[in-house]
């Protein structure tokens, strides 16, 4: 695990923060989550952490970047988890899944959260959850720091997503100021 963390640091890969991943793992335990869809594998760090919660957890995880995907394959093989973590190397918007999941974990392009949510919410089991990471976007969502136009647009999109969740009548969402900001949306 340390090796993966060091690789992420070296190549600037935004894997989940320590307290964020702790929260996620405890959530999976507490809610007896068994089937997980992850959007944004990166190099497999969060997928491996989630799979290691219990032997009967199965994960499908999507990553569009080929180099990261290949690194994820390597890491997952090292942990002997290739039978329980299914990796897909494609843009999530090209992927059609028929499976149902207890948890959908959105941790990909931050400006696309609403679209990911809408695209995959049909794959959620009754009583399932959608968890989204990086709602604080490194503290930038609640700062008046000077930002580039691109960054400002990204922050706006994250705020739009938060509003979308708050106004969504089919889900009850709780926001946690843990890690880089996490939301948990429960289908109601
Ligand atoms: N969940 C990982 C970190 C993911 S970082 C962990 O905590 O260990 C976000 C990843 O999402 C990046 O590697 C990026 O390439 C990927 N990504 C962004 N948009 C995507 C899309 N539309 N489809 C698939 N992957 C995407
Ligand atoms: Mg993240």
Count of beta strands = 7
Compounds present? Answer: S-adenosyl-L-homocysteine, magnesium ion
What is the CATH C level class, in words?
Answer: Alpha Beta
What's the CATH topology name? Rossmann fold
Shape: globular
- Whole-number count of domains: 1
Number of helices: 6
- SS-based class: alpha/beta
Instruction: Identify the CATH homologous superfamily.
Output: Vaccinia Virus protein VP39
Low-confidence stretches: none
Largest sheet: 7 strands, mixed
Round the Cα radius of gyration to an integer and report it.
Answer: 16 Å
Q: Can you walk through the features of this model?
A:
The chain has helices at residues 2-10, 18-30, 45-51, 66-78, 113-120, 149-167; strands at residues 35-39, 58-63, 85-89, 101-106, 124-133, 171-176, 182-187. The protein is of the alpha/beta class. Strands 3-2-1-4-5-7-6 form a seven-stranded mixed sheet, sandwiched between helices. Helix 3 (45-51) links the parallel strand 1 (35-39) and strand 2. It starts with a helix and ends with a strand. 35% of the residues are buried. Bound molecules: S-adenosyl-L-homocysteine and magnesium ion (MG). Magnesium ion binds next to loops.
Question: Key terms for this structure?
Answer:
188 residues, Rossmann fold, single chain, binds magnesium ion, binds S-adenosyl-L-homocysteine
């Amino acid at each position: 695990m340390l090796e993966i963390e060091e690789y992420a640091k070296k190549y600037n890969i935004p894997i989940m923060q320590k307290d964020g991943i702790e929260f996620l793992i405890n959530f999976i335990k507490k809610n007896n989550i068994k089937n997980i869809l992850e959007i944004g594998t990166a190099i497999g760090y969060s997928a491996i952490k989630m799979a290691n919660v219990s032997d009967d957890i199965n994960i499908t995880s999507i990553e569009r970047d080929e180099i990261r995907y290949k690194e994820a394959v390597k890491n997952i093989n090292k942990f002997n988890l290739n039978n329980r973590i299914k990796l897909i190397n494609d843009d999530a918007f090209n992927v059609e899944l028929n499976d149902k999941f207890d948890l959908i974990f959105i941790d990909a392009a931050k400006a696309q959260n609403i679209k990911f949510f809408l695209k995959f919410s049909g794959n959620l089991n009754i009583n399932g959850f959608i968890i989204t990471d990086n709602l604080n976007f490194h503290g930038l969502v609640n700062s008046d720091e000077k930002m580039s136009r691109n960054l400002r647009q990204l922050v706006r999109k994250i705020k739009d997503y938060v509003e979308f969740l708050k106004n969504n009548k089919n889900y009850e969402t709780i926001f946690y100021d843990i890690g880089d900001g996490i939301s948990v949306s429960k289908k109601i």
